[in-house]
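Justification of computing resources. Each target in the renewal requires a structure prediction run like the one illustrated here; the chain below, 349 residues long, is used simply to show the kind of job we budget for.
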Amino acid sequence: MVETDSGSQRPNVLLSIACVLIIIGGLKLGRPVLVPIMVATFLTVITYPLLRFYKRVGFSKGMAIFFVVSMVLAFIGGLIWLLGDSADAFAEDLPERSKQATESLAAWLQNNNIIEEKSELSDGMNTYMAAFATSIAASLATAATDLVLICILLCFMLLEAESFPSKVEVAFGSERSHMARLKEYELDLQRYLLVKTLTSAITGICVGLLCWAVGLEYAFLLAVIAFLLNFIPTVGSIIASVPGIVLASSLGLAHAAGIAVGYFAINLVIGNLLEPQIMGRKLGLAPLIVFLSFFFWGWMWGPIGMLLSVPLTMALKIYMEHTQDFQWAAILLGREPIAPKLPPNLENQ
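Resulting structure tokens:
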């Protein structure tokens, strides 16, 4: 009897692995289509409370959607327009600044017998900085190309957002358990994205003011980089600090050290003190999961995948928290061993 059970379980395991590999392959091949859809989805979750506010104050549904989409288009389009020339100049300037900084650092390390050849450090750092600057310019070009498609998708998603719960109720029945889980999932995901967007904006503003106070060029661009990469906990803040430190090193070692300490203090206060207090530990991810998701989604969808890595993984974790079959996975993905909170009607089943 034991042999029969193990034999019957083996095909199920192989089938599950095959399904996962097929899904990964589909996500990889569908990158040009799926990336705008995912960006539009997260924008829908973030802007839906604004849509409801406009409707409460008397706007029609069509006018409310028009105002919301116009605000998103103006913000993202204006950001790309403001950063266009600055990003191009930054992409040209950063490798040369990086070369100067790494040569000075490599000379100091060689004089202190820490490394034997200066090229051991400078070549690798220059290659990384050139790739980083190029990726920023390429990401802005891609964002500009996809912006119209994202706004069109956002329009249709906002149109469907209000009727979606009713569709779920008709599709799965009017059981309170389904609607309670859907509502709690929606609120948790909305709360995470709103809080993360707010704390990322605060981080970007603080970084921009710090760079402006020190007298760095590209302070606005560095602030935007800090805002975007703050969506990636720990890893993102480290990557975001490197260009600022490199640019500051051309002003002297004291400026570079001051920028490094400033970045560290900003991310320490906002990322480890402010954000957990607002968001709660329940909505956190384990550092290892953050690190792995960063590389996985980056490999899948490139720079945009890196930015979306934590929101995507967080959405998956929140979904698992509200399904009885996968709550164990949500606990493993979390920062602390906190049991997910089920809706009351599920706890009594």
